Inverse folding.
């Protein structure tokens, strides 16, 4: 059932093979730590929280809302996929943006890292950002992520520059609440010669 969620009681591991995407549209209820393994992409739904099996709550629970990306990439199916989650990316891993997403909030804000209890850590010099889905035929702007002012002060992004025949250019947008949204504009640039 596409709307059914996932509950993580203490610890869970998802391993996604190379060039595959394992996608959850329903909510992910954290009661512990989720570890992402494998070179593929894990696409997650909205984050919810639970304390010792209690009913889901909107409030993050300390040390019970952890996402560790050890291999491959993770992607957001909802703008609140990482809201309130302590997310860490190992060296060589990435945040993946779905170019085929249709959710208006996700397109406007990307994955949000603004809620109380949210943290974002990455082992490389910058958070690697990749894209999946169809490269646009014309110009297209998608939100990569929205972060709190505190996270924005030190955040560095290493964005995949070429997507199909398009080049990605990243610009920050400061929102009314002080958070910062990083936007990627993908467009065809330069001269293209096709010789047959």
């Amino acid at each position: 059932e596409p709307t059914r969620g996932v509950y993580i009681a203490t610890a869970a591991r998802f391993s996604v093979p190379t060039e595959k995407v394992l996608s959850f549209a329903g909510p992910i209820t954290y009661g512990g730590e989720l570890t992402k393994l494998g070179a593929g992409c894990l696409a997650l739904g909205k984050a919810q929280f639970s304390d010792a099996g209690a009913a889901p709550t909107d409030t993050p629970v300390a040390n019970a809302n952890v996402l560790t990306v050890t291999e491959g990439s993770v992607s957001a199916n909802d703008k609140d996929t990482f809201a309130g989650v302590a997310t860490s990316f190992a060296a060589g891993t990435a945040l993946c943006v779905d170019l085929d997403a249709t959710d208006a909030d996700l397109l406007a804000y990307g994955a949000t890292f603004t809620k109380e209890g949210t943290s974002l850590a990455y082992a490389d010099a910058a958070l690697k950002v990749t894209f999946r889905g169809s490269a646009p035929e014309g110009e297209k702007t998608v939100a990569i992520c929205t972060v709190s002012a505190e996270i924005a002060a030190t955040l560095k992004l290493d964005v995949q520059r070429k997507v199909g025949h398009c080049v990605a250019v990243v610009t920050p947008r400061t929102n009314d609440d002080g958070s910062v949204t990083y936007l990627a504009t993908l467009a065809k640039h330069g001269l293209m010669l096709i010789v047959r």
Q: What stands out?
A: DSSP finds two helices and 19 strands in the chain.
